[in-house]
Fold this protein.
Amino acid sequence: MHCIYYIYFDGYGNCRKAVTGQELELKYGNDPEVFRMAVAREFSESGEGCTRGHVSVVSCDGEKGLAEFLESIGDDTAAGFFDCRADSRPYNF
């Protein structure tokens, strides 16, 4: 059974929360922007929220398909949006 999931990614590209289309409708008024703001506020240290997250839409075969998708993208904080990689090196000034 295909399900549509809305996934919030923070500014570092890490998945923070995923909801089904039904949850989006019931909890967030069917508005991905409201979902984004609520989750950003939830994970923000100050509680004010962060504007640097985004919501992606994924169609998967149930929760197993969602788990496989999330596993395939990994949880690498060096991975940014569009699968860019960061290179960090210490510098002595």
